[in-house]
Amino acid sequence: MWVSDKWTDYELIDASRGEKLERWGDRVLLRPDPQAIWDTPRTDPRWNRPDAAYRRSSSGGGAWEKNRLPASWSIRYGKLTFQVKPMSFKHTGIFPEQAANWDWVMEKIPAAGRPIRVLNLFAYTGAATCAALAAGAEVCHVDAAKGMVAWAKENALCSGVADRSVRWIVDDCLKFCQREIRRGRRYDAVIMDPPSYGRGPGGEVWRLEDNLWGLVTTVCELLSDEPLFVLINSYTTGLSPSVLTYIAESVFTRKFGGHSDAQELGLRASDSGLILPCGAACRWER
């Protein structure tokens, strides 16, 4: 498991009984988490007085109970700075377990010793984009949600990398890749964080287990003759790291050589010491 354990502005305080207690800067949030099915003692008093708690509704969805919470605030990870904004569907705009991948990206890019062009697909609020830019890469950031791309620009500005070589694209990721292939554009590295389920602008249904293979084979056509890496993230329950490894080996290793490694991502609870599983990632490198 890759554990993101270098945070100072974020802390997983504890996780128990389907919920997690987190510190984001100086704010404490309580959120649901379906992985934390164990029942351990909730000894930290902040369980009873978080700054905000996301409560599930019996009719579906949920809402924040914001006791003491601004609309947004900043947290830092190393030299990166991100805007935290609690959203209506429990997310905050940052997945802190991804820090292990940001570290890896920021290590691989300068170590290449050459200019690196990165394509970040389903790029969300741009944490990985900021990491790649900070490492010296040229980045193409693609997400279908205009609001998420705007948020990513904020994060780039806060992180001091908004003036670097970056393209901000609002588009369907698969269709964008297909057009880039026709245009003859190539990338040295690709980062992708495809959703488990979604609908395209024309009502097309996206299911990761049905569409991931086609996405990966399309991305393979976008890689340069000397690709550096491909990073695939998955938050789909039941899609194991082994499956991601088999896909990467079957597509990227078969064509370019190299190797891949896939692991769960995790965050260690400071109270109990247990590591909360937070999805999986596969890293292929040549």
Q: How would you classify the helix and strand content by structural class?
A: alpha/beta
**Are there runs of 5+ residues with pLDDT below 50, and where?**
none
Total DSSP E strands? 17
Q: Summarize the amount of helix as a percent range.
A: 25-40%
Q: What percent strand?
A: 25-35%
SSE order, one letter for each helix or strand: EEEEEEEEHEHEHEHEEEHEHEE
**How large, in whole angstroms, is the Cα Rg?**
19 Å
Shape, principal axes of CA atoms: globular
Distance from N terminus to C terminus (CA atoms, Å) equals 21 Å
Largest sheet: 8 strands, mixed
Average of pLDDT: 95
Q: What is the count of DSSP helices, taking H or I runs of 4+ residues? A: 6
**Spatial ordering of strands, largest sheet:** 1-16-17-15-12-9-10-11
